[in-house]
Amino acid sequence: MTEHLKMDKVQPRMLDETGQGAIHKPMTRPEGPLKVSGTATYAAEWSLPNMAEGVMVRAAITKGTCEIDESSVKDMPGFVGIYTDRMVRNSAQGTMGTNPVQPEGEVHYLGQPIAVAVAETLEQARDIAQSLAVKYTPADGAKTVMDDSTEFEDDDDPVDMGDLDKAMSEAAFSIDSLYTTKPHNSSAMEPHAAVADWEGDRVILRGSLQMLGFNKNELADSLGIDVSNVRILSPYIGGGFGSKLGISPECVAAAVASKKLGRPVRVVLHRNNVFEMITLRTETRQRMRLACDADGKLTAIGHENWQTNLPGESMAEPVDVATHFLYGGENRRYGQHIARLNRSASGAVRAPGEAVGQLGLENAMDELAEAAGIDPIEFRVRNIPEKSPESGLPYSSNALAQCLQEGAEMFGWSGRKGPKERLEGEWYLGMGVASAARSNILMESRANVTLNPDGTALVQTDMTDIGTGTYSILGQIAAEMLGIDPSKVTVELGDTDLPEASGSGGSWGAASAGSSVFLGAKGIRTKLAERLGCSPEELRLQDGVATGANNRRPLAELMDGPITEEGHIEPGSTSNDFEQAGFGAHFAEVAVNKVTGEVRVRRMLAAMAAGRILNAQTARSQVWGGQIWGIGTALTEEIQHDRRTGHIVNNDLAEYHIPVNLDVPDLDVHFVDERDDQSNPMQIKGIGELGLSGAGAAITNAIYNACGVRVYDYPATPDKIFPHLD
Length: 726
Ligand code: MOS
Fold this sequence. Notes:
Helix content: 10-25%
CATH superfamily of the largest domain: Aldehyde oxidase/xanthine dehydrogenase, molybdopterin binding domain
Bound molecules: dioxothiomolybdenum(VI) ion
Number of domains: 3
CATH topology of the largest domain: Aldehyde Oxidoreductase, domain 4
Low-confidence stretches: none
Shape: globular
Mean pLDDT: 97
Radius of gyration: 26 Å
């Protein structure tokens, strides 16, 4: 049977009543020991009998056509084959469900996959891929740089409310600033990898993917086969951060080669491939215009952005997404402008939109607060609207003020001074703050939940765990609802033969897949209540014992066999009738070297309000990850393209610097206790990407507070600071 819920109205707060104590507990990961002992098998670690190895061949020109001369490598040791058909030029975007193959022989950017070289061993395949003769015919008109002479496609639907220009000219205080951010790579620790094998007409793909329900359709689309002939397995994933939302080139190449060869084929992207063939975050330019009255009330917000993508790609970074609902102000203007460049495609990288959009917005807020002579926390609190300022919708819940105020107290904000007023040796010290906001989304999701008479349970869904803690929280939800210890619950994920879930993306996984598990278990509770002769509301389940209105029995006595129920959640009108978002406040203290301009982050605090917290430990780890991304975004991460060819010159982790242990100080996380009744039957909101949104801006605002230099061009490397120090 299926327990179905369309989220059209507020649901009872069942998880506050159940009483098993499994929810919110800082529980460690059940799959953790497998991962640290090397016994959790990741995609590239599958080794099937008679498996051949594939290596992607990358284009060496920026734009044009190519012809591959297979005879140049045919006699090399271990040669198995070269395959060029059904190549996809980059990873698909999240929730696309399709991934059209590119016309054979066309090159749209340098580093694009044009073939897969297959051999008996990895070394042979790599040798063949590097030795393959390719005849290129470059085409004119390649574009590789976004600058003042670039042509842009304009927004079809720009938002323009009131009169921004008038509000700016009449304001007591205003700022008009241009912020720029560089392209970012997701840099998941596990590179993209696929092992393909066919059972007759059905492909079995072991991959590293975030959203299997969409991925199976994408792979079917690329291969031109029916989706019933696709099975994808992705039980362990070493990070995704958006880079594994859609099917990527190695999946299709492995499947094509395996089909032709009639043997399993493994294709693993090496780190350079990951930088080039997988989508990256666009660079952005953001013009921020803010105006306020003498009391520090915002009267105008303008947030216009310029960005890049390959011709024909539909994704655009939603840079202004949170600006629409975070602060008040009657006169508002937005616009998005996309340049079509011959460079690796742009796509979703953790917190698409907010991750870079809140750098512009939250720095601009800091600038205006200073211009108005108001403390930046007080300035933000004054501008939190009653209702979402554009849609007029009520917030489902909004604890931004509480996050800012409780955070300030915990962080010691009252000890903040002005620029250059705190000197320690040759280091200026300063503090910064930024608001965090991230839209909250519920997606359709299904799961099977089985309760056994011995008090064990099984959760099954094609949901993924990309390192976020899905195994932990789905087990905890089932345990709480069924009144058993979380250690008694087995969670099976990452197999498209299981009920279809939301997948991991957009920070919606816990709410969506979690709600389906909640509902499946709720269906079981209804059956148990019937057997006990009480109403579901009267039923108490705890430690394997069921208590009704006037009787009490162990599960084993109530059940003559396993009970399985499917849970099925669908978003409903609460998604449309309320502005749903997680909110928070980031605090940073930095030291800026007065001689070199080097920045060291001393400490950070994130005060987060994301509804009920399912697992205090995995949630905190998610926020830590966000804070660390914030450090990278603020200080070190930038993809550098060769201006002549669009080649990514820093396409490895030596030259693309993500923060390492020495860059990361004490990170503190505080959760504001909250229930969001409109979000889902568990009253939770997404936390993963909220932890990143705004984090970098707290650091750059702290740099300004330390030394009086405002960095407009991210990342804030020393060359952008020391020339302005006197
Ligand atoms: Mo996230 S960029 O939606 O994986």
